[in-house]
Specification:
8 helices, Rossmann fold
Length: about 250
């Protein structure tokens, strides 16, 4: 049986752990050639070894700080035309608007929005010349889809991601470039565990996060990544400008 991403070149940000790591593993199993980027070089090497052990082909791992001016443009120029771009880097600020400083807003927009602007802007010309491709943006149900408590900054930035996704899809549909967004509910990741720890009482924090999930549990990353593979593959060739909610019932 043919693998769904055979021969496709895929670029992933925040690839070393959590959703990014799971997506790299899933796409590698489907035959993709992956450029996996992250700020954590140690975790990238762990990821490289894991993919090599399971799939037999190591991904191309590269350190990348998505907030560093010029770094994205330089790396995109070096890797050449992409078939798939998966923007997975993100940051979650906790608190209401009254608990968010200008620096909090700046950091959140730098990671959650401007990094995607830069990767897309850098990847598009070669992607168009190469005949098109798929851009996948990590958003959230906490966005323009639904407001959640203590997520003022995060929800605003993820609403911007949905707007960006629609804009790219509308502007480049004629050039065979598709752009879609993924909107998970609460997923068990290292990032979530860090946020639980920041709240002080980890058990209570877990109870609170779980309580807002109608299924009564958190998702794991492997429940989300099948949609990444689908959007990266030719199976989704008629899908563009959409968001895909995988949220355990939050938006019912």
């Amino acid at each position: 049986m043919a693998r769904r991403l055979e021969g496709k070149k895929v670029f992933v940000t925040a690839a070393a752990q959590g959703m990014g790591q799971a997506a790299v593993m899933a796409m590698a199993r489907e035959g993709a050639h992956i450029i996996a980027t992250d700020i954590r070089e140690d975790l990238l090497q762990t990821l490289r070894a894991a993919v090599l052990a399971e799939v037999g082909i190591a991904p191309d791992v590269r350190k990348l700080d998505v907030t560093e001016p010029g770094a994205i443009e330089s790396m995109m120029g070096a890797v050449g035309a992409l078939d798939v771009l998966f923007n997975c880097a993100g940051y979650v600020h906790q608190g209401t608007i009254l608990q968010a400083s200008d620096d909090d807003w700046d950091l959140s927009f730098a990671i959650n929005v401007r990094s995607m602007v830069r990767t897309i802007r850098s990847a598009l010309p070669a992607m168009i010349t190469n005949g098109g491709g798929s851009i996948i943006n990590m958003a959230s149900v906490c966005s323009s889809i639904k407001g959640l408590p203590n997520r003022a900054v995060y929800g605003t930035t993820k609403a911007a991601v949905l707007g960006l996704t629609k804009a790219i899809a509308a502007d480049f549909v004629g050039q065979r470039v598709r752009c879609n967004a993924i909107c998970p509910g609460t997923v068990e990741t290292p990032s979530l565990r860090d946020r639980m720890a920041q709240l002080g009482d980890v058990d209570e924090a877990r109870r609170m996060f779980t309580a807002r999930q109608p299924m009564g549990r958190l998702a794991n990353a492997d429940e989300i990544v099948p949609i990444v593979v689908y959007l990266a593959s030719d199976e989704s060739s008629f899908a563009t400008g959409q968001w895909f909610s995988i949220d355990g019932g939050i938006t019912i």
